[in-house]
Amino acid sequence: MKNESLTIKSNGTHEIEIKKSRFLCTMARIDNENQAKKIIDQVTKDNPKANHNCYAYMLGDDDHIQRESDNGEPSGTAGVPILEVLKMNELHNVLAVVTRYFGGIKLGAGGLIRAYSNATSTTIDSLGIVKLVSKQELNLLIDYNQFDRLKYFLENAAIPVEETNYTDKIELVIAVSDSEFNPLITQITNLLSDQFTYKKGQYKIFEVPYSREDRQKDERK
């Protein structure tokens, strides 16, 4: 995956009603197309009386797989609007299935586009978004008399300690991105007068909360 990407915080379903039609949007993280198809089939099975189960999904680091379906709605009024909302929110490896129970009032092409878009966007708001960040574990080995200084520094830098091990020395395990690594080592070297050792560990994926304010900051960069 990319060093950073966005996805939904959790799988789930959210419902809205527009002119007596019910729109239930089910969203899920996916890893491949087979998984997407199984979820679509399950949603269809769970809603046997629904009029439509329209969907869209994107897969791959560069979103090279993009699929959408109107599932009987007029062409371009359901699948594409769902897909466009996923694109607008930059959600990767995510499936959205919008199930419609017709309420007897026709919405027209424009109304359908707005309805399927709103069903998807409100579900994203309901579930929340997280940023998936690839970070490398870093093992810091220090003396006991350095612990308070380093702990205070890490807290002020908003770097959580994943693990602390006590032997003849103290080992702290933290995680940093590639861009953070060199500046952080320089800062800790200065803080502890170069009286520490470190070892790089494995890369892991961390989930970081992501808000509209964060998106605005990213867009200004």
From TrEMBL:
One biological process GO term for this chain?
Answer: regulation of translational initiation
Show where the Impact N-terminal domain sits. 19-123
Q: Quote the cellular component terms of the Gene Ontology held in the record.
A: cytoplasm
Query: Boundaries of each UPF0029 domain copy?
Result: 142-195
What Pfam families is this protein classified in? DUF1949, Impact_N
UniProt record similarity statement: Belongs to the IMPACT family.
Recorded hits in PANTHER family, A to Z, give:
IMPACT FAMILY MEMBER YIGZ, IMPACT-RELATED
Name of this chain's protein:
YigZ family protein
